[in-house]
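BUG-460 | component: ligand-complex export | severity: low

The export step for adenosine monophosphate jobs runs without errors, but we want the raw record kept on the ticket for reference. Input record follows.
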Amino acid sequence: MLQFYNSLTRKKESFKPLKEGEVSLYTCGPTVYDEAHIGNFRTFMFEDLLKRVLILSGLDVKHIMNITDVDDKTIKRAADQNMPLQELTEKYTKMFYDDLEWLKIIPADDYPLATQHVDGMISMIASLLEKGHAYKDDDGSVYFKVASFPKYGQLSHLIFEEQQSADRMASDEYSKEAAQDFALWKGWKDDDGNVVWDAPWGKGRPGWHIECSSMSTEYLGDHFDIHCGGVDNMFPHHENEIAQSQCASGKPFVNTWLHSEHLMVEGGKMSKSEGNYYTVNELKSQGFTPENIRYQLLSGHYRTKINFSLAKKQEGEKIVKRLSEFKARLKAESNETKLGAEFPKEYQLFQENLFCDLDTPNALAVFFDYMRKINRKIDNDNMGEGEASAALLFIEKFNYIFGIIPDDNAIPGEIINLMNERETARLEKDWALADEIRSKIDSLGWNVKDTQSGSKLSKK
Ligand code: AMP
Ligand code: ZN
């Protein structure tokens, strides 16, 4: 029933887990050197959607997401800020968990930290050395020998030149035998400071790619069902993971690879290096609700680029409001219990779209058509027996997948906007305006109380 586009075969395939009824899922987590941006969260949200759809289809999901708390970027940032590595990474890991929770992303079963799993990485590298898939360098580094794995390039569909001549290795300029060889272990350098582990071949630290190979197999076994990430992870990260894992275990690694497209800003990829990014906290202070961000990130298909701009805020607010009003209308209409109610026929179509490679745009279109139809019936006082209860069942599943209808007690976007405007007025000491906004908030059913730790809201 379920079909996913597998990046490995470049085809839509029927999905069948290795173990009946259970899916093993590994998703590459954040590099915790800074706050994650909503481009990162597009990928994490797509992975959450995948998980919810797998669960909806009746499968149990075991989900592991790693935390990259040691790599070039984390070490550099900690040094720049004159901070111990762990203090820096703990700070951003905590922020990451807070953002996940605020965005209503279902937590993974485990978030293994790379720094806590170095022993497993050393064992995997030792096994690659023993089998002739890796070689040591004089500075204590260990490289993976790409030429020893003829299937290299199967995921990214890249063709690599023949291995470069071995005599390059002897020259000082090249510590690697071939340009595409990559580090499994990075020999210690001054810049690494006290970020160091002992390995049989010398002190140093693991390369980024081995972190995921080692942690995924430690938690999910040598061969598991699904591995995900953003498209930029496909090469070299995932290609290298396949090479390391298959060569170390001698078994297949992952059956299905899924990659989400990027979140863009004015035509360019949202990224830290371009500086064109928004963090969740920035959007929060602009008055975005979790539901609005979820709508922005889930309304496009995961394999197409989405353009983000602050100007989309209003459109999202309108949709969320319309959905909340629909739910409230149905609740008022439905005086029967939901027990025994059946799903409307449109639910089947909604599900089929999701089961066919997570087609969220079409699933949303099915739901919005249905909402229009039911709203018309309510307007005309024409609802059939049990129809409101059936619609409520549908809406419950709809919201399980999308999470874009706020809880009844959640603060609406409109109120958050007003609170932000009032905060600005207060900062500018414009007390008349602040009072005017307070009355407006009051008329919308919310109380504002100014305390020493800031303004607090409560529902009347
Ligand atoms: P990082 O913290 O850099 O390791 O990235 C975490 C995840 O975010 C990876 O899976 C990336 O592929 C993904 N990612 C980074 N930038 C974007 C973007 N603009 N849109 C979607 N995903 C992204
Ligand atoms: Zn990874």
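Assignee comment: Attached the raw record above. The first strand starts at residue 3 and ends at 6.
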